[in-house]
Amino acid sequence: VMRQASILISCAIAWYAISCNSNSPEVKAASAENLDTASVVSGARSTFEKVMDFSNKLQFYSGFVYFSDDPNSRFIENGELYSSLAALNEGYKQVVPSFELIENSPKSYDVVVLDRDAVVFTVPIHAKINTKDHPQIEVDYIWSGVLQKKDDRWKLIHTHESWKNASEAMASLFGPVKK
CA-based Rg of the chain, rounded to a whole angstrom? Predict the structure, then answer.
């Protein structure tokens, strides 16, 4: 009897959860009405590409104009969480002087339009990087970010960068000089 009651309760909970979620697609469809996704993606992608261009020119701080200084913004790079744009800026001050070359080459763009003012990008990137006194390396990493349009400008409010073999790459870029 106890087992039958458990099964009935589980079925009731599952039915309730399914019926509560049945309206989700309609809500999404309603919010997407009159949304020109191509225009939204184009604007957000242009901002992402400007950030990449500044990175490739080793002008990181110029690229930071496209990062939000909102207190709720977060930026993550290889296990390091920067809880603000100011913190990210400080973190970069430690490594930027070491760079001699960065060539980021996005392989593709996976874009999710959340709304006319919010877009999520996931971008696999191949990069060539050289730091002072170290040989050039080539790495693959995944960059993801949330861009938000505020006051008619796209800004990064969240980024995450994850490198394949990050420990090895960091050791090659910043470790003891091998002669």
Answer: 22
pTM, rounded to two decimals: 0.76
Which structure tokens are listed for 91? 């973190």
Q: Could you count the other beta carbons within 10 Å of the beta carbon of residue 29? A: 9
CA distances from 130 to 20, 83, 109, 176 (A): 53, 27, 25, 14
What does the chain come to in residues?
179
In whole angstroms, what is the distance from residue 69 CA to residue 84 CA?
7
Residue reference for tokens 């696999």? 124
Backbone torsions φ then ψ of 30, nearest 5 degrees: -65, -40
The token pair at 142 is 């995944």
pLDDT confidence band for 2 (50 / 70 / 90):
very low
